[in-house]
Structure formats: C-alpha cells, structure tokens
C-alpha cells in the first residue's frame, strides 16, 4: 500500500496465537528501531515516523500473560511490500475513536469513549489470529483541519476497495445482532460503504455484538447472497466484477444509505473500478459524475437500464442507485445487434453523446433506444428505453416514461427498421413544472402506444383478399380495418394502384400516422418504392407538409432521402416550395440531405422558396451560414431573378439585404429586366431604390408609364 496511512500494531508479551506463533515483541527502543530499518531504505525516516509508544495504565484488554503495549507507526509501504494485515468493516456509531483521539491516549477521555471498545476488541481479534497490523477506518485516516485540501481523505476513499481487497482477513462487526438467524436484519447490510467491504475481501469473518464468530463469508454465502442479491460466485471471488453488468452492480446498492448524499456515489467507486474528485455539497450530481466516469471505462449499455418511480425524469442517466431496483437481472448481451462499429461515448456541456439503434413507435417523435443488454431468461430479447426526438431531427433526445423498460425481439424486425443513430441526450437535472406536466401527459398509455413491439401477426382465416379493400381502408383512414386486413395470410402490402402508387404512398400523402406506422411495421414493406413519376412516399409527405410522416420515414435506413423524381425534384424541393419552415429544417438536419442539397435540376431550397414567394423560409435559409444566396441552378437562374420574375418584391429586398448583388442576372438577363418583362413594377421600384441601373429602354418605359398614370 504505497500511501501514508495509519496502522495499528498490537503487541502482546509472549502471547501465542491459537492459529500460529506469537506476535513479535517490540518492548524496547532497539526493537522498535530495527522495525523502522526493516522497511525499504529509500523511504527512510521521511516515510517512517514513530509517533507514539504508549504503555497503558488502563490496558486495551487484559491477556492471561500481561498487559498490551501498542506501537503506533506512520508507515509507507512500497507497492508489493505491504505486510499481511487485518481490516475492520463496521457501521459507524456515536463516539467513534478518531485519529486525533489516538494522539492523546494518555487522557482517560479517549479510552472511555464508547467506540474505544471496538478498537480494543478488533485489535484482540487480529492479534489472536497472528496479525501485527490492523486497519480501522475511523481512526486510520487523518480528518483533522490541517488536511484542509482533503488530499488524504480523497486518496483513502478512492483506494478503499483495493485496501479491503488486499487485506488478509476482514472482520465484519455486526453490532446489532447476536445470532446467525438475525443477520438479515442487521444495519450493516443497509449501509453504503459496507457493500464494497463485503465484496472486496477474499477472507471475511462475521462477528456478532459480543465479538463472537457467526461464520465466514464462505460459510454464510447463501444467506448473504439472498439478502444482498449479489451472486455467490462474486462473493467467493470466482467471478470478476467485470463479468457482471453495470446495472447488476448498481442494483446491489439499492436501499443502502450513507450519512451524506454524495457518499452513495463515492462508496461505489471501487465496485466500478473508477476514481474521481470528491465534492461534498454537490448532492445528486455526485452520482451523475460517477456514471460519467463509468462511461469512460466501459461500453456497457446496461448503465441506462434503470427505472424511476416518478416516471418524469427526462435524462439518460439515473439520479440514484435506487433507480436500478428492478435491474438486478439485467445482463449484457454477448452478441451485438449491428456489424457496424459504434463511435465512442462522450460527455459535453450539451449532454451525453452516443450511438444507439432507434426503433420508432406509432407516435410521432417517440421511439425505443435499443440497449445491448437483456434480462436473465429473456436472452432472445433486448432491453430498450422510451425516448423522444425533441426537435424531430434525430439529433437531440430525452428519455420519457422512465417507469418502465421495454423488451424487444429484434429478430422480428429488419435491421433497416432500427438503424443506429448518433444521439445527444441533453442535461437537465429536474424538469420544470411545465415540463413535468408535459412528460406526464406524454407518458400516458394512449400516447406511448408501443406495448406491442412486434410486426402484426398473421391469421389463417383467409388465403387471399381483394387489395382494393386495403386501399379503401387507407383512403378512409380506417386504421382498425387496415389492421384486420393486414393480419390475413398472403396479404400484399406493396401492390400498385393508379400511376404505380402504393398504399404507403397514399398514407403518406394523407398524413395519418397510425396508418403509416401499421404499414411500416410489416417486414416486407418497400418504404421507398417509386411510382410512375419517380415519387416516393417521403416525397408526397414532404409536399403535403406532414412532419409526423416525414419523421417516421426518416427513422428508417432503407429510405433514400434525396431521391429525384422525373421532374428532378427531391423531398426537400417539395418542402421548400410549400414554404414549410419546420419541415425544411428537419430535412436539412439530415447529413445525407445536406450533402445533396441540390436537386436534379441543380436547384437549392432557397431557389424554390424564392420562386414561390416563401418569405419566412427564405429568411430562415439566409440565416444559415452555408447557404449561397446567389447560387444559380443548372439553367443559370439565381434566386433573386426567380423572385423578380414572379413578382416577389419583399423577397428581392430581403436577398439584397443579405448581400445579393442588385445586378445579379440569369443567362445575361438582369433581375430588373425580368421584373419589367413580367410587369412587376413593385419589384422594379425595389431594385431602383437599392441602386440598380435601368437600361435606357426601361427608363423610357418608366417615363411613359409615370406620365400615363399622372394624366
């Protein structure tokens, strides 16, 4: 143990242990000096300080052969040279003996403290078992004010698990019970710190309130496992902690209490093999920070498999170990659900960033994030959490309906139905009252209609049906009838109707989310099938402005988001022409669309919006830094020329305000000329006020026109 901490070495004159030889006697200064010199000389007196040699008039305890002497040393042992030692696990009570108390052993007030009996008895137990050293947390860590930087306390807490693991024996003192039958109700099993003190030691002896042996950890393993939910193989050291899921380990801490809220997190550092600074006063953020440290050390997604009784939390990370109460059977899946490697997890001021498969439900914006873990006995299914796409851009998410976890059998779905997506879960400690109400309302069963996360089962009632009945159900938006028809065997979901259109094409144009979801839940659906005009369901949904259907289609990996129809138009083109600002922003949030922002005619969404006079959308697009306001299409037409030719004076003025040249032209024809040719006087006036030069023939036309109106 390469750190300065306080060890107590009890000495007994010529006392022989029932289990071995007597302890070394250090009854004189020469013997003590030999002990000091026996440690690595590199540490020297700098690391070994003899702090007290006390012969007690009131002995720690009386032995048949005499009184005990105690040598208190401040020792630093190099790694690998720590002598065998015992360690005590107990629950703190009133009047515990501290390190400062042991500096004043000559005063009777220390020996008379209630906690001194614990020191006396544990030293006796250690000496009886042949140990020269014992470590006791209450008095072996210096918590005095001179350590204002808390360096010693921080080091101790971050090293505690290792110290208990390296001890030759651990004495677990259960101060509130007498018999083995009472063990389950002992306070020792309810404290946060005793969890790691139970798991880490290889050899452990349980003692009752009278310091009589109740049994060893090995002898009591079944009772302890039942009480704590910790597998016997973990207790016995036959299984590494890393072989259990994060959720399982968190579940072991459920119900355990600490004096300070932050210690519920700090007491778990060793269980997860992480370390972090201690910030007393941060409250539940300590547990958030613990989870962030765990994310740096593992890719175990069971970290997110928790539930909350309130159900209104909207963060990805839990706020307490108690949130894992129903996760003790959550285990990792050895096989992945994707052949594509995932990116690393990251935490920033924006939130938690990670990649997870996303399976949509029948409610717009709501879906399931599939975790690479399962429940014991349900290995063919995957645990999933309900999440909401906040802005329908597949970028920023929040967890919803935290009262439950879902189980999904992915073998019933095609991989293109649950593609992996890079998600950001924003930080928010506690929802505001308005948000809490919003989350509660949107967690209702009728909203979260994803109880059945499997494709529609088929019934052998009929062999074939008239597919016109399917079309009628879609056109009349009769979801119940459609569900009934889709359950028939051999039913086709991709038949073509007028101009090669499909059922999904009509459903997308109608904008009925439930109808579209029922069709898309079929494994054999062709979500991107083109009709005779080259148009897809996404194209029709975008033109009609149905954000919910667009979002549903974008959630899949088998939809070409930038497909051109025979007119060269893309879904983005249709959204821009209709002037739908939210929908256009959603489409532009997709990286694939951003890479192919021009349609088959080389036109940008700004070009279409300017031509159609969509002022709000033009302004929105101009505010985007990567939009070229004067970029011509394949035919050479610029946005300002298209706006001028179609008489949109306000858009012409807006484009000029954003830096477009008033002399911008299309194939050599200026915007002013186009406006004049189409009789748009208001556009001409805007251009003139903005400094545009008018050719002589246009000046004469203006003069004649002004003269006509004046007369």
Automatic annotation (TrEMBL):
<dbReference type="Pfam" id="PF06985">
    <property type="entry name" value="HET"/>
</dbReference>
<dbReference type="InterPro" id="IPR002110">
    <property type="entry name" value="Ankyrin_rpt"/>
</dbReference>
<feature type="repeat" description="ANK">
    <location>
        <begin position="635"/>
        <end position="667"/>
    </location>
</feature>
<dbReference type="Pfam" id="PF12796">
    <property type="entry name" value="Ank_2"/>
</dbReference>
<dbReference type="InterPro" id="IPR058525">
    <property type="entry name" value="DUF8212"/>
</dbReference>
<protein>
    <submittedName>
        <fullName>Ankyrin repeat-containing domain protein</fullName>
    </submittedName>
</protein>
<feature type="repeat" description="ANK">
    <location>
        <begin position="567"/>
        <end position="589"/>
    </location>
</feature>
<feature type="domain" description="Heterokaryon incompatibility">
    <location>
        <begin position="85"/>
        <end position="176"/>
    </location>
</feature>
<dbReference type="InterPro" id="IPR010730">
    <property type="entry name" value="HET"/>
</dbReference>
<dbReference type="InterPro" id="IPR036770">
    <property type="entry name" value="Ankyrin_rpt-contain_sf"/>
</dbReference>
<keyword id="KW-0040">ANK repeat</keyword>
<dbReference type="Pfam" id="PF13606">
    <property type="entry name" value="Ank_3"/>
</dbReference>
<feature type="repeat" description="ANK">
    <location>
        <begin position="601"/>
        <end position="623"/>
    </location>
</feature>
<dbReference type="Pfam" id="PF00023">
    <property type="entry name" value="Ank"/>
</dbReference>
<feature type="domain" description="DUF8212">
    <location>
        <begin position="286"/>
        <end position="310"/>
    </location>
</feature>
<dbReference type="Pfam" id="PF26640">
    <property type="entry name" value="DUF8212"/>
</dbReference>
<feature type="repeat" description="ANK">
    <location>
        <begin position="533"/>
        <end position="557"/>
    </location>
</feature>
